[in-house]
Amino acid sequence: MRFEPLLKISNLTRDFSPLIHCITNYVTVNDCANVLLAIGASPVMADAKEEVEEFVSISSGLVLNLGTINSRVANSMLLAGKKANELGVPVVLDPVGVGATKFRLETALQLLESVRFTAIRGNISELKTLTLGVGAVKGVDALEDDAVTETNIKAFGDILKPFAKRTESVLVATGALDLITDGESVLGVENGSPKMAKITGAGCMLSCVLCAYVSAVVKSQSPFSMLETAAAATCAFGFFGETAEMNYRGIGSFRSALLDAATVLSGDDLVNCAKIKRI
Amino acid sequence: MRFEPLLKISNLTRDFSPLIHCITNYVTVNDCANVLLAIGASPVMADAKEEVEEFVSISSGLVLNLGTINSRVANSMLLAGKKANELGVPVVLDPVGVGATKFRLETALQLLESVRFTAIRGNISELKTLTLGVGAVKGVDALEDDAVTETNIKAFGDILKPFAKRTESVLVATGALDLITDGESVLGVENGSPKMAKITGAGCMLSCVLCAYVSAVVKSQSPFSMLETAAAATCAFGFFGETAEMNYRGIGSFRSALLDAATVLSGDDLVNCAKIKRI
Amino acid sequence: MRFEPLLKISNLTRDFSPLIHCITNYVTVNDCANVLLAIGASPVMADAKEEVEEFVSISSGLVLNLGTINSRVANSMLLAGKKANELGVPVVLDPVGVGATKFRLETALQLLESVRFTAIRGNISELKTLTLGVGAVKGVDALEDDAVTETNIKAFGDILKPFAKRTESVLVATGALDLITDGESVLGVENGSPKMAKITGAGCMLSCVLCAYVSAVVKSQSPFSMLETAAAATCAFGFFGETAEMNYRGIGSFRSALLDAATVLSGDDLVNCAKIKRI
């Protein structure tokens, strides 16, 4: 279907080229930097406590990704997140593997207590863990029991809504069917390719794209809600995956093709690709 | 030649999808995660002392890679390795550049003293260094004098066998000709492409594939010896390289093609590719 | 135009295969390792204070890149740089984002005070910041006001020359038009593709290529000046980009094609590609 925000926000991102400060894991950091460049944003990766606040001060958005968190970097995330809140810089949280260890859960909960996030993106197991304050995640993938489907998306939405409301964040739970909620409405997004779960970094990259879209909207004072903005980012990134899948030969070339799609697809290409449903 | 374990173990890896916890270097970590996904395993990379033991507890295998080791992460490796031994989770050591500095050698020897490794994979210089407790390696590549050939593989096997026996580990020394020994038998594997030495990360990736294969065998209680399992991993990864080399245009596309081959080749494709010889 | 050093130095790099020790950021480190392998050099990445001096002792060149600097690694850089100076190992500085934060500027200035660099490569904003001791950089990209053009290259050369003289370093300021100076002469290099600014890591990779070229010249005691050597590296890397751009489909495949070009282009291919002008 035609989804106007896709056209507008992807163009805004290219026009305003927001600088996105990522404190992120060392596994997928290169893909994160490249996907930001591909969509017209500008990445900066820095994690030293001595400088993260200064980087936030010149940035339009901040991504905090727990992928390879340690106590030194957790402290930098806290400093950066608080500074971002002070300055009105939007912050996106990616709570990678948050249910897998106590340390991850405590780090995430401490961040949630001290920092207001504009958006939180994870798989459904990660978001359920944050919602309930406890959880069990097998590594960094969602549990199979937790798969969001057409049948249960409403029920999952009901579980996540109070958390979205309490944190004043838009939640993006990605999977075969993506669930997005701002605490009031729930959207389902079907864009994407099953191959995206077969490379490392698809989730991390989407969190960066989401932050860039949010930042472009805030920076340009455009009249899009964060729900629409999150949906636009999720559709766009999903469509990059659909495009990349067309000549699938394996995950090496797929990853490369995903970045190619992110580079060349414009708002005009994207605007009619959305597979969104209001739940 | 036909080598049945190749068919069986590569299928087991896809069926059991073992979670492999890697404490590894930040140079090739992305390739390590992607190659694990490509062969059907699931990667988790985490190195904080606060959580590595918990990650080991939910994992089927652990890889310790010294590529960019520092004292903080060395400590995490020690904790993770001991926990893995406690729980019967197989551990693979990749002693990158171990002969190059005192710090690396001491770290490796301390790990060997405290942790029992199911398999150790390195180049022949690295394994000789561990065997002799001293060494000289030029960076992270094997010394030319140390190249394993048809002529000297028996002699090299005799050098490594006592170390394999003492550590109860299968040793995999990779090069143009790979040498595998469990302390009793010695195998030579000729699969592979000379281009694999021309990208960064081929060794690191094989260590991960090896760990995934070992973990799949252990998890499924399959009746393969660790010698056979190590040979299967080495043949398979070598064959990925042979396949990737077919349209060689340089190391950028070769690296991508290597991951593609790892994604699409099934046990049926692999079973007849083995170039193994009992020495 | 024909530029003899391009032929000679790129061949020297393949013949002498210098080991290049990089203390660098975790964003682009994989590309740095691969580009060094592509041009025939050998990379080692290690950053622990316990071992960097030993790695320097067996290396032919050292790259210090501030991309994701923290205090632990800054200390290792200082140790490695001093050791390199002691041993006559050439050192290249890449002051990524140096004007963006006080911590980066102080770290860079402390390195400049304690270590003599053979070459310093950055964008023009970064080099101006080092020259003036203060600066404002938007993240890791050059400010638009700072773009070097045919019209202002002489003026920029005049700004940088005293800094080159004082530090006894060759300066390489890259952008659409690259400026190279040893404090006496100024060269302009037009090789390159605008797509290089659209991937992460082009600058970091050039710093590594530059270090490899410098190291090959020093190691082989070849009679090329550091100005010529820096120009050769800049032309060569720019030409890799021109070659990679030919089938441009997006930044994923471009990055891969850049490494392919670096792999397959020989001195004979490069020697006539130079677009250099003495200013």
Task: Describe the protein's architecture and organization.
The structure is a homotrimer of 279-residue chains. Chain A is built from eleven helices and nine strands. The longest helix of chain A is centred in the C-terminal third of the chain and has 20 residues, at 226-245. Chain A is 50% helix and 14% strand. In chain A, helix 6 (124-132) packs across helix 7. Chain A is an alpha/beta fold. The two termini of chain A are 16 Å apart. Chain A has helices at residues 4-16, 29-38, 52-58, 71-87, 102-114, 124-132, 153-167, 202-219, 226-245, 251-264, 267-270, and strands at residues 19-23, 42-45, 61-65, 91-94, 119-123, 170-174, 178-181, 186-189, 276-278. In chain A, a hairpin with a 4-residue loop joins strand 7 and strand 8 (186-189). Chain A is globular and about 45 Å long. The model of chain A has no long low-confidence stretch (mean pLDDT 95). A nine-stranded mixed β-sheet of chain A has the order 2-1-3-4-5-6-7-8-9, sandwiched between helices. Chains in contact: A-B, A-C, B-C. The interface between A and B is medium-sized, with 32 and 33 residues.
Tell me the quaternary state.
homotrimer
The largest inter-chain interface, given as chain pair and residues per side, is: A-B, 32 and 33 residues
Parts with pLDDT < 50 across at least 5 consecutive residues of chain A: none
- Taken from the alpha-carbon principal axes, the silhouette of chain A is globular
Distance between the termini of chain A: 16 Å
Report the order of strands and helices of chain A.
HEHEHEHEHEHHEEEHHHHE
